[in-house]
Design a protein that fits this description.
The protein is an all-alpha fold and 541 residues long. It has 2 domains: 333 residues, no CATH class; 165 residues, no CATH class. Helix 10 packs across helix 11 and helix 20 runs parallel beside helix 22. The chain is 57% helix and 1% strand. It is found in: Nucleus.
Amino acid sequence: MPRDDDGASASQTEDSLTPLTQTNTPSSTVEALLHPGNFLPGSSNDDGVPANEASMMVPPYNDASQWVLPAAESASVGTPVSVSRMPVNDEALLQNPLNTNAFELLGTPMMRPLKTATDLSFAYTTGTSHALGSDDKQAVIFHCKVLAPLKSTRNWDRSAHTLFLNKAYNRNMALHFLLAVSHSELAIHFGQGSQPPQESQRHYQRGSELFLQAHNPFATPDHVSMMLSFLYMYMFWMRREHLDPTKLRDLSRAVLVHVRTYGLDTLCASDDVFSVDGACDGVITVSEQVLLARVITYLYDRDGFCCFFGCGGQFANYMNSIPQKRHRIWLRSRAAFFLPLSEVGYNEAGSEIEDAATIDVYFELIILHQEINTYSQSSVTHATAMKPRLQQRLEAIYKDQGTLFHQATEQSHDSQCTLMAYVTVTVFYALQIYLYRARQCAFGTRPIPAEIQDALNSLVSAAYYATKTGQVQLLERFQWSLFIAGLEVTDPVHQEWIGNNMSDPAIKKGFDHIQAFKRRSAGGITVQNIRALIDESLTVS
């Protein structure tokens, strides 16, 4: 976040940006971003007002030469692996379940392709909005210096979002979607509301044009660009004031279709990197495999998050149906911060090792969250069988990680406990409450079992320490945990504190809508009613 002593503005340092990686020659795309008023190749200056830096409230940055963009990835980076290493017959593939292709060797029928406008509803943004006055350079700097650290428990230059930026900036489609997110977040950051400004809409529309062109069956797919674009589209739609179930369901299905069509799950789970059906034009590098695994993990996380609100979940459900592959993809994704410095621009292995156990617990909670989502929507027979297993897994996590839970919830602030630890513990207790309320039991009703009251108390305690330890405004699952606590607490003091720390526009709007519903109905609210209200609020508005 900006400090009072930060003296140099973005406009004062536009010529001092240098590449983040080892090369000293930025790409033409990056050079276009470094000059005010410039737009990306393929975008139009006619549908937007050139940015005026003097009129724009840009956060001051000290020593802006540090906030730099990466140079184009060298062709020599990574280790290409030829298709020739791929098993040559179906029998050989079947011997290793991780080597089956996207359609499980025709055992699964090909998914219906995305053709209609309804299927691609997420590719279109409508409505009119004001021009923010920001330019692309400001949006990129904001993305690096402000947004990346708010979306992570790491420093900005060591976060996955900076890694994604490094890989997106020389891929026009992904970069357009990244800039759509960045301009939108810039508007939210300065209190301009959650409606994306003209600058954001322009980039989203251009990215969508390239996205639709990429569906040409004769085009060679760029999977890194496509998967990053999917991720940025999730980030764009999840930050609207009203979650749009139709767009997020279509987006979830589009991700699933792309991953299964090209066998990216198999590719990222394999120890022997190869190309499935020529998916990557015959060559895939180890660094690309790791990056794709990281993006798939993020998409799984986002889709499961949206599924709670009845918006999507198809991709998350698919990932949960292949637990062995999912686990291997997760392990592969962890290697993103162990890649050579020349590939990622930094080395974060130390932090990754330090938080390794906590991060593994966090991912297990992401898996459990989606399984509870499924449990909440299952038939009575299926749900009856699922609940004991889910309870046992939560109990096992608590038993195995007793020290973590004790440190995060004890009544004196432990400076040795990391933000990642506090967030993980907060999510754990929120899941305990969610599992209890997931069927017909309404949030906020009393009496409740002693263990659920203890979970609520511990959730609030861990959340309080998390807010004192670091920035949590854009950590979606922490915000969701506050949402669960807000539905459950009854005393006004805690309700006010939770409301003041709930900063996500969609969650905040949904929470306010639900609280109004609870006041009218003089009772609690079920998960099923929450999902109905999210859908209904979109229609009413």
